[in-house]
Design a protein that fits this description.
alpha+beta, ten-stranded mixed β-sheet, 10 strands, globular
C-alpha cells in the first residue's frame, strides 16, 4: 500500500465544487471514478481544499491510498488520459504514509480576478467578475492591509460556517490592476467558508467609495457578518497554490 499525492488543476465552471454531492457532479467524484477504473480498486481521494461550486484551481492537492504497482509519478500521465478536459493532474508522487493535506501546516494562496472596463470581455467571462463602475484600487489596497496578521475573521465568513474557531492568519494580501484586470491575491494558513469572496466583496465596497479604508478595521473587530460587504461571485476565484512545510512529506 502506498499513498499518492496529486496536484490538481481544474476549471470549476461545470462542477458543483470539489466535495461529493448527491445532486451534482464534482471534482472529487470525477477523480474517484477515473482512479478506481484505472487502478481497478475502490479509490477515495482526500482533498486539501473543498472549493465551492464554480471556483477554479491551478494547484489543489489530493491524496489517496492504493495497492497498484504503477509508479506514483506515472499515475498522472495515465489519469490525464481518462479525465475530462477541464480537469488535469499537474503532478503525482509518493508521499509519506501519514501525509494528510488538511491536517498539516501549509500556506494557501487564492486569487480573485475582476475585469474592470466599460464592456465585458468574452474570454474573461468564466474566470473574472465583470464590473464597469469606478473603483479606487489604491484605497482597496490600503484597506486590505488591515487584514494581515492573526485575527478573528467572523465578519468575513458565511453565517452557516461550522468550525471550532473563526480565528485565522493572513500572511499577505495584495490588490493590483493592469490592463483592466484587478487581481486580489491572498495567502494564509487557512480560510473560513466564503472568507476570500467576502473579503473581496468588502474591498469592492471600499473601491466604490462606500467605506473608507480605515473602516475595514472596525468591520474586522466587530465580528459580525452583517458589517462586511456582499459575497463576491464564485467564478472570479482561483485556488492558485498550496505550499506545505518540508516535514509534511
Amino acid at each position: 500500500m502506498m499513498r499518492v499525492g496529486l496536484i490538481v488543476a481544474y476549471d470549476g465552471t461545470a462542477y458543483c465544487g470539489w466535495q461529493l454531492q448527491k445532486n451534482g457532479n464534482t471534482i472529487e467524484a470525477e477523480l474517484n471514478r477515473h482512479l478506481s477504473e484505472l487502478l481497478r480498486e475502490e479509490i477515495e481521494v482526500i482533498g486539501a481544499s473543498r472549493t465551492d461550486s464554480g471556483v477554479h484551481a491551478l494547484g489543489n492537492v489530493a491524496v489517496f491510498d492504493t495497492n497498484t504497482r504503477i509508479p506514483a509519478e506515472k499515475i498522472s500521465y495515465a489519469l490525464n488520459q481518462r479525465l475530462p478536459e477541464d480537469i488535469r493532474i499537474q503532478k503525482s508522487w509518493q508521499t509519506a504514509d501519514d501525509f494528510h493535506p488538511r491536517k498539516c501546516k501549509s500556506r494557501k494562496t487564492y486569487e480573485y480576478r475582476i475585469y474592470h472596463n466599460e464592456f465585458p470581455l468574452p474570454t474573461e467571462r468564466l474566470y473574472s467578475y465583470f464590473l464597469y463602475v469606478p473603483l479606487d484600487v489604491p484605497k482597496m489596497s490600503a484597506a486590505a492591509q488591515y487584514l494581515i496578521g492573526r485575527h478573528d475573521f467572523k465578519s468575513f465568513c458565511s453565517i452557516d460556517t461550522q468550525t471550532e474557531t473563526t480565528v485565522r492568519e493572513i500572511y499577505d494580501i495584495g490588490v493590483t490592476e493592469e490592463d483592466h484586470l484587478i487581481r486580489i491575491r491572498v495567502t494564509g494558513g487557512g480560510f473560513l467558508y466564503n472568507m476570500v469572496r467576502i473579503i473581496v466583496g468588502t474591498l469592492l465596497e471600499v473601491g466604490r467609495g462606500r467605506y473608507e479604508p480605515e473602516h475595514m478595521k472596525e468591520i474586522l473587530e466587530g465580528c459580525d457578518r452583517n458589517l462586511a460587504g456582499p459575497t463576491a461571485p464564485a467564478h472570479g476565484l482561483t485556488l492558485v497554490r498550496y505550499d506545505f512545510s518540508e516535514e509534511n512529506g
